[in-house]
Structure formats: structure tokens, C-alpha cells
Design a protein that fits this description.
It is a single chain. The chain has five helices and 14 strands. By secondary structure, the protein is an alpha+beta fold. The protein has a single domain, classed as Beta Barrel (Porin). Strands 1-3-4-5-6-7-8-9-11-12-13-14 form a twelve-stranded antiparallel β-barrel. Strand 8 and strand 9 form a beta hairpin. About 14% of the residues have low confidence.
Length: 279
């Protein structure tokens, strides 16, 4: 597993270096237009309209789905979480299931959004008979900013989120590179990603505090942690209005998380299946 984690790091960091160089170039040409010929901006302005019209319909879809994942905690097998498949795509605002936001900037390549999302509870009382004296790890609402960069061969994203309900009180930085493939009514996108979690986040979900230590557990605090993910997103249109959505993936945990007395395994498998009707 250590070798797999190192391979993830090497591949992702190589792709990430290309992302940041392209992002900086795009930002400079966007916010410092005097450095680019005016004719180029006229061409770009004309080319934005077709890109927007391609995504104009359907703007609203409604359905249901479920996420299934292996639990990381001692004595807990897996989690099944129903989720809404509510999708809305407007000129300024959007809803994507358990997340919603507003576009701050958008062109053919770069999108910058304000984003809010719900994080489901990681551990609830009764999930495991072995975690006696361990408190629930509750769900919360996180908010922040997401930047997405679309290139010819790949799409990159960087999301920075912070807890607004002060449950874990921390921050999460998510970096992802995706290769979108489209054919008729089929969309396939394998991806690589990393999740950088603050010490407050990591300790809340995987640590043992002083009150839990009174029940016989060893007190355990964590610093910043990094998890690595890979998976594939798959969507297929069953008809003009009905869309089947699936995601399958695996996450490799930071070694400090895997060493927690609460955690049973160092790998998490997950999948999502949902169906939605577009209007």
C-alpha cells in the first residue's frame, strides 16, 4: 500500500505542476488583458456563446440515489447513505445534489465558484459495538471556493472548504485531475485526486479526545493529513430526459489516519448510483 501511495503522489504532482502553470497563464490573460492583443479578446468573447448554449438544456433534473462506502471505523462494515439527485444549472447559480453555489467567473476554460456542501456524518452511535465511549462524528455544512480549469485533454479543479457549523472546525483542500470522455449520450471521466485535511478536521474524525480517553481509549491527536483518491464517473442517457449516474472509487488514507485506534483499515472503497429525470 505504501508503494501505491507513492505512485499516486508522483503521478498527481506531475499533473498538478501542469495545472498550476496553465492556471497562472489563464489568470494573467484574464485579469491583465492589456498584455494580450485586443483581437484575441474579441475572438474569445464570440466563442463563449456556443459553450454556454451547449449546456443550456436541460437546466433542471430531479431524482434519487445512494452512496455505499466501506467504513473506516473499528467494527463497522459499510455505510449506505441516500442522496437527492437534484440538479439545477442557471446562468449564475447551480445545485448539484448536496452542494450548491454561485459562479463568480466563467469562460471557456476557467470557472471560479462560491460553493457550499453538506458533509454527511462519518460515525453515528450504534454503527459499531466496539467503539464504546466514542462520540458521534456528526455531519456539517462546509463552504468555500472552487476553481476549475478545462483543457483540451483534461480538467483540473482545486476546492478549498471550511466548516461553517463548527462541528470539526477545520478545512479541506481538494485537488483533482479528470479526463472527460464523451460519446453520444455517454460520459466517462476517470480521475486522480488528493484531499488535504487540517489538523482540526483530522482529529475530529479520526482522533481520540480527553473525554473519550476516560473510557479507556488512548488519546490521539493528528496533524494535517493527505488522502489519495482514484475512481471513475460514468453517466449514460437512458432516454432524452432520463440520466443514470454512477461513481466508483478508492481512497488511500494518510498513515496517521490509518494508525488511529478508531480506524480499522487504511483503504476506503465507495460507489454511488442514482437516476434523474431532466426537465
Amino acid at each position: 500500500m505504501k508503494r501505491a501511495r507513492q505512485t499516486f503522489q508522483q503521478i498527481f504532482l506531475l499533473l498538478l505542476s501542469g495545472f498550476w502553470s496553465t492556471l497562472c497563464s489563464t489568470l494573467c490573460s484574464t485579469f491583465f488583458p492589456l498584455t494580450a492583443p485586443l483581437a484575441a479578446h474579441a475572438t474569445n468573447a464570440q466563442s463563449v456563446q456556443p459553450a454556454q448554449s451547449r449546456h443550456a438544456t436541460p437546466t433542471f433534473s430531479l431524482g434519487a440515489g445512494a452512496v455505499v462506502s466501506t467504513s473506516l471505523y473499528q467494527g463497522a462494515s459499510y455505510n449506505v447513505t441516500p442522496i437527492p439527485m437534484l440538479m439545477f444549472s442557471g446562468k449564475q447559480f447551480f445545485i448539484q445534489g448536496t452542494r450548491a453555489g454561485m459562479h463568480l467567473y466563467q469562460d471557456e476554460q476557467l470557472t471560479v465558484d462560491l460553493l457550499g456542501k453538506y458533509r454527511f456524518a462519518a460515525y453515528e452511535a450504534g454503527d459499531s459495538a466496539e467503539l464504546i465511549g466514542i462520540k458521534e462524528r456528526k455531519g456539517t455544512v462546509e463552504a468555500g471556493v472552487k476553481a476549475s480549469l478545462r483543457l483540451g485533454v483534461a480538467a483540473f479543479s482545486c476546492t478549498v472548504l471550511s466548516d461553517v457549523l463548527d462541528e470539526h472546525g477545520g478545512q479541506v483542500i481538494q485537488l483533482r485531475v479528470m479526463k472527460p470522455l464523451r460519446w453520444r449520450m455517454i460520459f466517462l471521466a476517470p480521475y486522480l485526486g488528493m484531499s488535504v485535511q487540517s489538523n482540526d478536521f483530522s482529529t475530529y474524525y479520526y482522533g481520540v479526545d480527553s473525554t473519550e480517553a476516560l473510557a479507556g481509549w488512548s488519546e490521539y491527536d493528528l496533524d494535517w493529513t493527505v488522502n489519495w483518491q482514484t475512481g471513475v464517473t460514468f453517466r449514460i442517457g437512458l432516454s432524452q430526459n432520463i440520466m443514470l449516474n454512477t461513481v466508483v472509487g478508492v481512497e488511500l488514507l494518510d498513515q496517521d489516519i490509518a494508525d488511529s485506534p478508531l480506524v480499522e483499515r487504511d483503504t476506503r472503497f465507495f460507489g454511488m448510483l442514482g437516476i434523474a429525470y431532466g426537465f
